[in-house]
Write a sequence for this structure.
């Protein structure tokens, strides 16, 4: 039976509140103050090591550069959290801030130091922080789940309760780790969506890597991937025509209810990007139809083409 002394659904303050900030600071960490009563110190950056349980492997160079410029201008507004280990420090939370501070040319960084944080709490917090911020790609999430299972005796049921997911969502996430290494790399790069990744786990697919390459090259959606796995031939022209007809019918229905009819506003760049994200998530055509004259109101149309397709979308929403 899995053990669980800290719940992933709790925040960092809940995990850390039972641990006193380390009062035995080294000479390289002069003492300071913070507004929440915790002691904040300045620590030399060359004494700080990454969280050994950090699930996030990819950090955007552009984002780090932007954060570094902000730190240069305004300083570090929020201290990082670290634990002391054999005269050095490991990051509990704040790896992006630490990397950006190094990039900004700083020699020290503000930090709250804790001396009584075990490996289990470190692993849990590294996972919960990134999941809550939606920073992990599907492979990193699956690797984090597997790490908690291997190192801390979690069962799938333990994890499901801890992160607020269904047990099937945990199991399906872990299935991604059985995909070929190259396919996992494409998922981490963002070339394959989470929906496409799950569809590739089907036992009916003989050559996963070849199909994954086809998905990238042809832009296949989840419904098309599932059809291919069933041995059906895909006619992209027919699919596009059907989607166009559905969108035209939807637009015509909206226009018929307007009295008098007004021109439909063009989607802004942000709305188009959001529409694209919805299509990637649901693996099907999604249309955002703003009300005439304003983007503040409107409808979102999610297309489905069979009961199996609808059930797939329903499962996605339940596991979200």
């Amino acid at each position: 039976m899995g053990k669980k002394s800290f719940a992933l659904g709790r925040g960092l303050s809940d995990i850390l509140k039972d641990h006193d900030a380390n009062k035995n600071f080294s000479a390289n960490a002069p003492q300071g103050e913070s507004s929440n009563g915790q002691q904040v110190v300045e620590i030399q950056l060359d004494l700080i090591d990454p969280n050994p349980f950090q699930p996030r492997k990819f950090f955007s160079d552009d984002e780090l550069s932007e954060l570094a410029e902000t730190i240069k201008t305004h300083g570090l507004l929020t201290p990082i959290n670290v634990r002391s280990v054999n005269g050095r420090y490991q990051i509990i939370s704040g790896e992006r801030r630490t990397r950006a501070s190094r990039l900004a040319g700083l020699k020290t960084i503000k930090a709250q130091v804790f001396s009584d944080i075990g490996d289990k709490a470190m692993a849990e917090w590294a996972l919960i922080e990134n999941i809550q911020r939606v920073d992990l790609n599907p492979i990193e999430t699956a690797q984090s789940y597997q790490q908690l299972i291997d190192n801390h005796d979690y069962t799938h049921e333990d994890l499901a309760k801890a992160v607020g997911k269904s047990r099937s969502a945990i199991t399906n996430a872990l299935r991604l780790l059985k995909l070929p290494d190259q396919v996992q790399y494409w998922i981490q790069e963002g070339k394959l969506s989470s929906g496409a990744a799950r569809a590739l786990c089907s036992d009916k697919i003989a050559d996963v890597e070849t199909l994954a390459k086809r998905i990238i090259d042809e832009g296949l959606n989840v419904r098309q991937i599932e059809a291919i796995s069933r041995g059906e031939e895909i006619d992209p022209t027919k699919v596009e025509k059907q989607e166009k007809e559905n969108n035209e019918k939807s637009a015509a229905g909206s226009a018929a209810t307007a009295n008098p009819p007004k021109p439909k506003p063009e989607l802004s760049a942000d709305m188009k990007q959001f529409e694209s994200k919805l299509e990637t998530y649901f693996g099907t055509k999604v249309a955002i139809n703003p009300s005439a004259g304003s983007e503040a109101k409107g409808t979102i149309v999610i297309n489905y083409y069979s009961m199996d397709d609808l059930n797939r979308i329903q499962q996605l929403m339940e596991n979200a």
Q: What stands out?
A: The longest strand covers residues 108-114. DSSP finds 14 helices and seven strands in the chain. Strands lie at 41-44, 48-49, 80-85, 88-93, 108-114, 286-290, 298-302.
